[in-house]
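Consider the record:
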Amino acid sequence: MRGWLRIAAGVVGAVAGFIATLLLLELGGLGNRADLITSGLLALFGAIAGLVLATRLATRMDGSAGSLARNSLKSLAVVVLLCAATGVGYYAYAVTTATPWLNPNAANPLLLFEVRLPAGTTVPASAQGIAIELQTDLNTMPGEPSVSRFRRDGDKPVIAGEVELAFRTSHRQLAVNIERQPSRLYPIGMSAKAPHTAEFGPWQSQADGSEIRYRAKWPGKP
């Protein structure tokens, strides 16, 4: 039990020495915030000094004859393990809480879509009468109608548009609101990574008689 107390004292001494060195550098105006390597090395030296002093004090207080070097090395090993565990924990936290950007540090890919409406549906002549929104479990993103791609497929009008895919998620749906018509909601059955495809997928029928097809278009790809 005494051995563990000496090791614990060494760990506490290392932490205290590290903090004390940083405080002395800051309060004494000796530290250089632009030179993090030197400051870090000095703080490390303070931690080791604190560890050795605390271990020596604990050894004297309990009257043991244990080796100072051996006890100090044990405390140092515990400190290293604690630092490693802290680093692993922080990395895991950073990974699990990081924003799941679909295409980090680059332009967002696009969801290109076409909606084939039931026969007899009236389509506004301009984009002002159509509101498009991509809804996910992480965000909502307004879309843009592509009026130049509007057409008729037999007696059915077809509208088209695009919206940015910002986040990596498999929970996506597209809301299409045309003035003086009921709101339409289309599930987007695309994987979380939304891989690029050169062609539209098959038409997917909806309960109201409309259909949708779509594809993901990544930057720099046709």
User: Anything to note?
Assistant: The mean pLDDT is 84. The chain is about 35% helix and 25% strand.
